[in-house]
From TrEMBL, chains A, B:
The keyword GTP-binding applies. Gene3D superfamilies: P-loop containing nucleotide triphosphate hydrolases. This is Methylmalonyl Co-A mutase-associated GTPase MeaB. PANTHER family: LAO_AO TRANSPORT SYSTEM ATPASE, LYSINE/ARGININE/ORNITHINE TRANSPORT SYSTEM KINASE. Belongs to the SIMIBI class G3E GTPase family. ArgK/MeaB subfamily. InterPro entries: GTPase/Isobutyryl-CoA_mutase, GTPase_ArgK, P-loop_NTPase. It comes from Nocardioides furvisabuli. SUPFAM superfamilies: P-loop containing nucleoside triphosphate hydrolases. CDD domains: MMAA-like. NCBIfam families: lao. Keywords: Chaperone, GTP-binding, Hydrolase, Nucleotide-binding. It holds the Pfam family MeaB.
Length: 322, 322
């Protein structure tokens, strides 16, 4: 409904680059709405991206991700950095957003003009978060953020996804979250660059750290590889946050030096390009671009047992080549 | 490495249809390996599918999903039904499987020849679970299962996915899992056909049921729509399981009567066909089918700021049309 705003794209992009919060917000809304204007937006933003360090913050529910993000942002602000925060809530694909407003989540920074905060849901349309998150990161990057924090709720798949699009992935845990097998099952031992036992003033924190260290040490690493440290924080009081930020910087330096930054960013671009291409194909297949809904016709035939899914996929691919 | 087995596909399919567990297992392995033989397998299975009722079982970690599945399977077996169980673990995309063996998870039924049990991880390759799960369901369906139970670990996205491929989705909760907002955030209020408060012998069970009922009653429903009941079980003792199975049957009858079964199965087929087509395109784009890795070339250019992701996607789509 708000697909065409009052401003032309070049003007909007110029204002976003000048740090105007309303213009940044508008561009991210275009991403959320999957606006046809995005093609022009991304082409205009492109020369101005690549500066921001993307920090993924993830972990199971209840470990204090929002509080930690809040404390990290405070520390980054003290260091004079401009910060963008994307709070991703993949758990609400139908309603399309978090229940709590951005201001509630990030109360300390709601009025700071050098902090952009935005919640995004997975609206389910098109390619979901794999499609929208990198583009929103791109907007914040071009708008001059030194750091973009991508906070993801949830366990499982979403952690892997945040790891896929971050330069540095921070995995949060808290004492008493269950035994080591649970942690391993959640896949978190494979995705973290930094591990944090938050709520470190609680009973069992030291044990959780020890267990985590042991499990991490089991993984094989090549010489020169990054060894993920395990840190302790009490995000609600800010304890340990400066040390954590120091480790984030150390990891950023390692990424550059080891050539890993380019590798990760290429991987991220790969997923982004694929997601955009796949979304375009989905539109073509389902007739959203004006044709008939071929997928629906084929799906009904598969459901009725009249054709098999591979034969139906072949038909779709024929249209893909129109 | 075991892409070509000793048996030809028609023989394997015939043996799976005759209920031979080893043949069923082999076919699901072909799905997990994304074998090129699947095209032939699915064409052969297709006429024999559509019989099984697909029951999705989901809920946050710790609510007793495996215990509940175990108890449900026991009840179905008492009713003389053949049962297939797919335990999906999307949290382990890299290692490709659950840490606990199938026998440990489902100890009671490990030796029952009318129960097929299989754990599947999201191997990350191709379309992941959206690609593999429906095909594994198809194998169990064709093998004569009356019910296929798809158990999914996790919160968030994975619940939505299991809802997408089940005829009936069962959402499990337990007392004291956190307040209502948490439940709403997890998206579970939108996906369940049946809700179960498991561990109902624990303190707070009645309150959890009341809260759940209140929240469910807030959603608008048309006349004739299914109203999700909220049941109480103690899966470890079997308490409430027969009542739950009765509700599953009642929902199955409603699906037929309301025309909803065909709608859901068409939606499921739609996702399956799309996932197969997208996986084929990914192979084409990345050169897995013998060409060069065009995505990698384009991704490197995007990461270097030389081109924008939409322009890169256009290039991919050109190849899609080869």
């Amino acid at each position: 409904m708000t697909r065409r705003g009052p401003q032309a794209v070049p003007d909007l992009v110029a204002r976003a680059r000048a740090g105007e919060a309303a213009a940044v917000a508008r561009l991210i809304t275009l991403v959320e709405d999957a606006s046809p204007l995005l093609r022009e937006v991304m082409a205009a933003l492109n020369p101005h991206t690549g500066h921001a360090h993307v920090l993924g913050v993830t972990g199971p529910p209840g470990v204090g991700k929002s509080t930690s993000t809040n404390a990290l942002v405070a520390g980054m602000r003290r260091a004079g950095k401009r910060v963008g925060v994307l709070a991703i809530d993949p758990s609400s694909p139908f309603s399309g957003g978090a229940l709590l407003g951005d201001r509630v989540r990030m109360g300390d920074h709601a009025l700071d003009k050098d902090v952009y905060i935005r919640s995004m849901g997975a609206r389910g349309h098109l390619g979901g978060l794999a499609w929208s998150t990198p583009q929103a990161v791109r907007v914040l990057d071009a708008a001059g953020c030194d750091v973009v924090v991508v906070e993801t709720v949830g366990v499982g798949q979403s952690e892997v996804e945040v790891a896929g699009l971050a330069d540095t992935t921070l995995v949060l845990l808290a004492p008493g979250m269950g035994d080591g097998i649970q942690a391993a099952k959640a896949g978190i031992l494979e995705v973290g660059d930094l591990y944090v036992v938050n709520k470190a003033d609680r009973e069992g924190a030291e044990r959780t750290r020890r267990e985590l260290r042991t499990m991490l040490s089991l993984g094989e690493r090549n010489e020169g590889a990054w060894r993920p440290p395990v840190l302790m924080t009490v995000a609600s009081t800010g304890e340990g946050i400066d040390g954590l930020l120091g480790e984030v910087d150390r990891h950023a330096a390692w990424l550059e030096q080891a050539g890993e930054l380019a590798r990760r960013r290429t991987l991220r671009a790969r997923r982004e390009v694929e997601a955009i291409a796949l979304a375009a194909l989905r539109e073509r297949w389902s007739g959203t671009d004006g044709g008939d809904d071929l997928v629906e016709v084929l799906a009904a035939r598969v459901a009725a047992g009249e054709t098999d899914p591979y034969a139906a996929a072949d038909r779709l691919l024929d249209r893909g080549g129109d």
